[in-house]
Structures are given as structure tokens and as C-alpha cells.
Amino acid sequence: MKNEARIDKWLWAARIFKTRTLAAAACKKGQVSLGGNQLKPSRMVRVGDIIDVKKPPITYSFRILQAIEHRVGAKLIPEILENITSPEQYELLEMSKISGFVDRARGTGRPTKKERRALDDFKEDVPVFFGDFDFDLDDDE
Fold first, then answer.
1. What tens digit of pLDDT does each residue of 74-85 get?
2. Would residue 36 count as lying in a domain?
3. 3-state secondary structure the chain
4. Is residue 61 part of a domain?
5. N or C: which end of the chain has fewer CB within 10 A?
6. Residues whose CB is less than 8 angstroms from the CB of residue 11 and which lie 6 or more positions away in sequence, other chains included
7. Confidence (pLDDT) at 101
């Protein structure tokens, strides 16, 4: 058993990211840290290290139990890592699920289904006048 492994390979092997490319990209973006320091994809991690992985809207924390570089079955994951993410982070995740999709700034882009229906209702409420109107405002003629 190896004592250390590359962080991008470990993140992929531990099934935190679907592909190694995504794991390396997360490292390059600064979403993976060890003790508050951002990690490069080539950084070697050891057994016992605690890493933080930012996957918006929460930050997961994992303790490395085995330094592996080859993907393992999902049933073996408890032997590879220990999830020590705080309950507050999971509450934050639940709150974001409840609040729904709020990433789009109001008034930008296409309207949502709810906004479109509100626009349609507004248009239907506007009275349409038909008939002849005299727009001449002079009364002395």
C-alpha cells in the first residue's frame, strides 16, 4: 500500500469527481485545499490528511484513510475516506434546494415560466378599445 497519492488521482479514485479531468480542473480553480492552502493537481497527499472540496453551495471535508490512485468500487469508499463535513454545511445544502433556482439575475435573459405567465396575464388585463375616437383636443371648432 502506498503512503501518498496525487490529489487529482485520489479525488477521482475516491469518486468525489466523475473524471480525473474534473478533479484536476477543481484543483486549478482553487476548489480543493489542505489546511487552508489551495492544492495543485500534482500535489501528493498522505494518509490522515484532511482535504476540503468546494462544490457550491457547500464545502465538503474528507479525511484520507488510504492513498489510492486507481478507482475502486463504490462499496469500498468507506475504507478510502471518512466524510467529516459539518452538519451546518448539509443544512446549507438543504436550504439551497428549498430556495430553488436563483442564479439568474431578475430581468436578464429569457423569462422563466412563472414570469412569462405573469406577463401573459398582464397583457390580457389591458382593455382594448375599438371604435372611432376624435383625438382633436380643440373644443372651439
1. 999 999 999 999
2. yes
3. CCCEEEHHHHHHHCCCCCCHHHHHHHHHCCCEEECCEECCCCCEEECCCEEEEEECCEEEEEEECCCCCCCCCHHHHHHHEEECCCHHHHHHHHHHHHHCCCCCCCCCCCCCHHHHHHHHHHHHHCCCCCCCCCCCCCCCC
4. yes
5. C
6. 17, 20, 23, 26, 27, 32, 53
7. 56
85: containing domain: 4-99
| Contact indicator for 33, 49 with CB cutoff of 8 Å | no
Number of domains in the chain: 1
The tens digit of pLDDT for each residue in 87-128 reads: 898 888 888 777 765 565 666 778 888 888 888 887 776 565
Residue 104 within any structural domain of the chain:
no
pTM of the model: 0.67
In a domain, 134, yes or no: no
Query: Measured between alpha carbons, how far is 83 from 14 in angstroms, rounded to an integer?
Result: 11
Query: In this structure, what CATH number is given to the domain that contains residue 22?
Result: 3.10.290.10
Please tell me the distance from the alpha carbon of residue 121 to that of residue 52, in angstroms, as a whole number.
Answer: 48
Query: Count of CB atoms within 10 A of residue 4's CB?
Result: 15
Cell numbers that stand for 13 in this block: 479514485
